[in-house]
Amino acid sequence: MSAATFRSRMHARATLLSAAAGTAGWRQRLHLRFVRWALRVRSPEPSPIILSQRRVYTLPTRGGIAFAVSIVVILLGAMNYNLNLGYALVFLLAGMGMATILHTFRNLVQLSLRPGRVEPVFVGETAHFEVVLDNQRNEQRPNLRLWLFGDDDIDAVELDIAPTANGVAVMSVPATRRGWLRLPAVTIETTWPLGLIRAWSYAAPDMRCLVYPAPAVSAPPLPYGGEAAHGATRDGSGRDDFSGLRDHQLADPPRHVAWKAVARQDNGPLLTKLFTGASAQRIWLDWDALPTGFDVEQCLAILARWMLDAEAAGLSWGLRMPNYRLDPDMGKEQLATGLRILALFGTPDQISAVVGSNGTQ
Amino acid sequence: MARNNRPVSQRQTWWLLAAALSAFLPLSTLLSPWLVMSATATMLLRGWMTWRQWRLPPRWLLVLLTIAATAGVIAEYRTMFGRLPGISLLSAFLALKLLELRGARDAMAVVLLCYFLVLTQFMFTQSIATAFMACVTVLITTATLAAATDDRPAPQLLLRRAGVLLLQGLPFMLLLFILFPRVQGPLWGLPQDRITASSGLSDSMAPGSIARLSQSDTIAFRVQFEGAPPPQHMLYWRGPVMPAFDGRSWRVSRTSAQRTVPPFRVTGTSQNYEVTLEPLGKSWIFALDYPDKLPPESAYTEDLQLLSRQPIRTRFRYSMSAFPDTSVGADETASMLTESLQLPSGGNPRTREVAAKWREKYGDNTEAIVTEAELFFLRQLLSYTLNPPLLSEDVIDGFLFESKRGFCEHFASAFAFALRAAGVPARIVAGYQGGEVNPVDGYLTVRQYDAHAWTEVWLKDRGWVRFDPTAISAPRRIADNFAAAAPENDALPFLARNNMAWLREVRNRMEAATNVWNQWVLGYTPQRQREFLQGLGFKSPDWQEMTATLAALCGVVLLALTAWILYQRKSVDPAFRQWLKFTQRLGKRGVQWHVWEDPLVFADRAAKALPTHAEPIREIAGAYARLRYAAPTHASDHGTPLAHLRARITAFRP
User: What does DSSP assign to residue B415?
Assistant: First the structure.
């Protein structure tokens, strides 16, 4: 996303907030009030969210209004010239207009939404929320458009959903602050089949994206030294010098699997290479040891940068925060846990998040 | 908003071109050639531009072209208003709009213009063929509208989608057509060019004016008789009455007063019938002699012409009764009789001489004079022909003594002239004589070539009596039809003679279909609507009652459509359906299955709760899990795995 669109999104959000504050025009205020009423269900909604007929709204589009006006003009012409076929034409078009209301409504109603995947992002990136749309009906639902509430619908997501299948709409939200980023309410709309009628609904799926602090652009060098000088890891094994093989255990990093040894045997068990190393380094990234003169966010940025650097350098690293201690390790999961601690630091979610992170995340 | 004005894609452009063409082509016969050529050229150019993906012309050029087209139309018609100038302008704008397809809004404008152009077609013709063409145009235009939202499906799919939508609109259309309260137009006055040319009889008759009609097989009116139609020679459809003669042509009287009730008392038996008069653009309402009541909005003149208050510009249906035995005009005013004796001071000396002799011989015995005149016509051996020779001065002398060949107007004119010269009041009556029964629907069809002229003679005590001098020389014209009386080598309208039976059969069928169409679709006027609704059981259908019924019925249709549309067949996996049945049975025994629960885990739980059924529970859960999650297996000796599962679950009674 270019900087310009990013700024415009920010602007859109700002106008929305100011609208909420009551400084916007009456149309926008009315719209907001309507949306609040329409989303009267407790937000976030439990999934799956089924767009029942009570929450799907229909109104003519501008094209639909133009169509209606033309019908009236044709009717006047037919009356003036006593054209019975003109009447028939008007009535046929009017009937078609009625039918299209139902078709448009049907294209949206009974659609069900549920949360899909959300990958954590760093501040300044765009969070991608995958909203899964389930079509339980045996017919296609074409031309659905989704966009975030308060966003301009220019960059709406458009998709068709095949019969009894699901589709994934990726909603993009710029991540501006670390911590949990909640998916705003989503407007979902369709004007299929004729574009005369617009059916729309609002939904607020329970989705949040973890936003990591942006890594500092220029950070102090990694804090080598300290315990690293002692050399040994807690189990005495490092990664530098090969010391032997043992049976593979689930927790072993895949890159330590002795693939050559496995390939030599036929159907044999996976083996893990063991290393010893005085030089298997581990470092502690210590909140308290950070240079002074930085505020909290800058400290978190530096820590995030360090984590990424340490991971890139193949170091085993641990994290000491005022409220939590992460034992040294390396790999994707370690990195995810570390960044999560940083992301939630100081937020109401921090403790539980860290406790929860001892497991898989 | 941005989403309302997306750029028009190439496919959408093709659709819009197709819609514009389908709306424009039916009109092309009506418009002036330069406009048709330039509009077609513009559309072809647009097609080429779309194909080569050229850029659209700049706006200033379009403005110039629009001004040029408007100027051209004004130059052609001297006005911008009226039907043809209006349609010309709309067609030009449609073609030019195609060059300006910048956004969805322009596409919408084109679509709406196309719908409107369909209406303009109907101003000229509302035949079945036109309706069919209009259906095609509406279908293509609606498909274009669908393509404006979603242009990816194949053309036939979009056409089908449009067809389905239109078909679903059909019930609404029928309801609205029948029940929508009709207003008798015009609302703001018909433009003068509503009927460009009128056909049929006119208010004067010169030699050759009725013979000209004999070349036209256009339908003048259709008649439905109650019971058997009267014999052919009784079918005198009275039209213009012409008492004024200037030596060459007969004219209707301009001064005749009008009455709203017939100036006579009907007697004798009656014949009921209903006439559907084609819009001829004239005021005469054709009827058999003599009606007891007048149709609405009509009047009777002193000389017994039945006139509509307005020229008849739409198909007009009226019910009448005929009392053929009625005698009229026994107490005719002196002024009327004087008018019926007027002759120019000079001309036609030979006829005057003959008439003077009759007058000398019979004096005031007018009946004897008329008989003498009939005998005279018989003796002259006059012949009936469609192509009488042109006569210059003294047309009556020329016809009676020299050429002796003439069409009905010659006969009638000469007869009336001779009687007037003999002092007997006489006048010309024009109208139609006879007609042909269409065996398909039993309607009597009266065509322009049935136009006829005869004379009415005033006899003391009897009043006005019809004499038809044509019948003296060509009895078959009256007893049969005009084609039978015409000589073999005279040119007649196609199918007027009784040959080509199969083609006549085809024409009869087509005309019967057209008649149904005219009666029920085109002739569904406010009056017909009232009659029809009364037939359906409405006491006095006024617009409130109609609107209420309409709203209620539309609501019913809408509900039916909604039910149909919202009804969705849940497509559940058959194995899962069996599994649900199984879990329901276990649920009754107190072991609830949770949606998120793995079948095998649930089986473990259930087996512990119901140890007596542990084995079948585990087997069924295993079979189900294999069916859902394992790779497809082939049928075993238990049949397909699904059938096996179904059998096991059906047999399972915890």
Answer: H
Q: Any chain A CB within 8 A of the CB of B3? A: yes
Residue-wise pLDDT tens digits, B574-615: 788 888 888 888 888 888 888 778 888 899 989 888 888 888
Q: Whole-prediction pTM value?
A: 0.74
Task: Look at B561 and B376; give whichever has higher pLDDT.
Answer: B376
C-alpha of B93 from chain center: 28
Structural domain containing residue A329: 226-356
Asked if A74 has any chain B CB less than 8 Å from its own CB, the reply is yes
Domain contains A37:
no
Contact A238, A228 (CB under 8 A): no
User: Helices marked H in chain A — which ranges?
Assistant: 3-20, 26-38, 62-80, 84-108, 259-264, 296-312, 332-344, 350-356
H or E element in which residue B122 lies: helix B104-122
Reply yes or no on whether B468 is catalytic. yes
Q: Which of B565, B567, B576 to mutate to test the interface with A (most CBs of A within 10 A)?
A: B565
> Is the Cβ of B194 closer than 8 Å to some Cβ of chain A?
yes
> Residue A103: closest CA among chain B residues belongs to which residue?
B565
Q: What is the model's pLDDT at position B273?
A: 93
Indicate whether B599 and B545 sit together in one domain.
no
Q: Residues A12-71: pLDDT tens digits?
A: 443 444 444 445 578 778 877 887 777 765 566 777 788 888 889 999 999 999 999 999
Task: For residue B477, give its domain range.
Answer: 338-427+454-485
Query: What amino acid occupies position A278?
Result: A
Extract the tokens encoding B51.
């194909």
Q: Are both B62 and B107 inside the same structural domain? A: yes
From chain A residues 110-169, the ones with a CB under 8 A of any chain B CB are 110, 136-138, 142-143, 145, 152-154, 156, 164
| Mean of all residue pLDDT scores within chain B | 86
Q: Both B547 and B586 in a single domain?
A: no
Note whether B150 and B49 are same-domain residues. Answer: yes
Q: Which residues of B touch A102 (CB under 8 A)?
A: 168, 558, 561-562, 565
Asked if B173's CB is within 8 angstroms of A88's CB, the reply is: yes
Number of domains in chain B: 4
**Confidence at residue B635, expressed as pLDDT on a 0 to 100 scale:** 56
